[in-house]
Design goal:
4 helices, 24% strand, Urease, subunit C, domain 1, five-stranded mixed sheet, 148 residues, 2 domains, alpha+beta, 29% helix
Length: 148
């Protein structure tokens, strides 16, 4: 019996050690350089600037000659203005197009759960690609009056 316990402890220790971050080799993050027509840093519009992204994080922003990396994949974005690090903080994700349903119908007749489910799908499609995290803050559900 003691031999079985020792074997189980050894197997558990081996499993624990192999699961630790030090025992795992991290994948090499892809480096991408985005080259828009302009980069807006929140104060100034810059022509000729690029944004270097390593994995899912912005690694560097600045003039192309100081930020370009020879091993990076270059993505040209002609005619665009890029604002690196912008956090979109004002979306009406719990509402959909008024051509589909009026505001009153959406708020008073569609269930809150349905609206949250639609918002979750919208956020996943629009915000998660290239983002590290996204959280939805929604008011507490409340009972809606029903029509007689």
């Amino acid at each position: 019996m003691h031999r079985m316990q020792r074997m189980l402890r050894a197997a558990a220790a081996l499993a624990l050690l192999s699961a630790t971050p030090a025992a795992q080799t991290p994948p090499t993050a892809e480096v991408i350089v985005l080259r828009p027509a302009r980069v807006f840093d929140g104060d100034v519009m810059h022509e000729g600037w690029v944004v270097r992204v390593r994995g899912a994080r912005i690694d560097a922003v600045g003039p192309a000659d100081s930020v370009l990396s020879p091993s990076a994949r270059l993505v040209n974005l002609p005619g665009t203005t890029l604002t690196p690090g912008l956090i979109e903080g004002h979306s009406h994700v719990l509402l959909h197009a008024y051509s589909e349903a009026s505001w009153v119908d959406q708020v008073s007749r569609e269930g809150f759960g349905l609206r949250v489910a639609r918002a979750t799908i919208t956020c996943a499609r629009r915000f998660w690609p290239g983002s590290r995290s996204f959280a939805i803050s929604a008011p507490k559900a409340r009972a809606m009056p029903t029509s007689s």
